[in-house]
Amino acid sequence: MLDNPMHPREQRREQRQEALEQAMNSVRCGAKTRQGRACQSPAMKNGRCRMHGGKSSGAPLGGAHGKFKHGLYTKTSLKFYEDMKKVLTETFTLINR
Ligand SMILES: [Zn+2]
Predict the structure, then answer these.
(1) With 70 as the cut, is the pLDDT of residue 93 above it?
(2) Could you tell me the distance, in angstroms and rounded to a whole number, from the CA of residue 35 to the centre of ligand 1?
(3) According to DSSP H, which parts of 8-67 are helical?
(4) Which tens digits make up the pLDDT trace of 11-41?
(5) In the chain, where are the structural domains located?
(6) pLDDT value of position 5
């Protein structure tokens, strides 16, 4: 029965074993469970499993976020202030030479 080409049981077993090994060697979720230990489910790109935010792309940005008011502290404006500060610092050092 094992030698039947229409029923490649061995091949499927090997594929299953390979997939299982891959799953066992994957990165694990580090979220804290209610038991107080790490979750240990297979993690996604962001280091969390499907139940602990792995599929989530995060909160909506800008006006789509419910707490958005004026944009004074958004990533882009903070970067802009930082860049302006650098330019001003360089300018003052050039002037004061
Ligand atoms: Zn998890």
Answers:
(1) yes
(2) 12
(3) 9-24
(4) 888 899 999 998 889 899 999 999 999 999 9
(5) 9-55+70-95
(6) 73
In contact, 77 and 71? CB cutoff 8 Å:
yes
All residues at 6 or more sequence positions from 32 whose CB lies less than 8 Å from its CB, including other chains: 38, 39
In 3D, which of 25, 29, 33, 27 has the Cα closest to residue 53? 29
**So what's the pLDDT on residue 33?**
94
Close Cβ partners of 7 (under 8 Å, ≥ 6 residues apart): 1
What's CA 59's distance to the chain center, in Å? 13
Q: Which residues neighbour ligand 1 (ion) by CB within 5 Å? A: 29, 31, 39, 41, 49, 52
How far apart, in whole angstroms, are the C-alpha atoms of residue 11 and residue 8? 6
Which residue from 32, 30, 34 is spatially nearest to 42, judged by alpha carbons?
A: 30
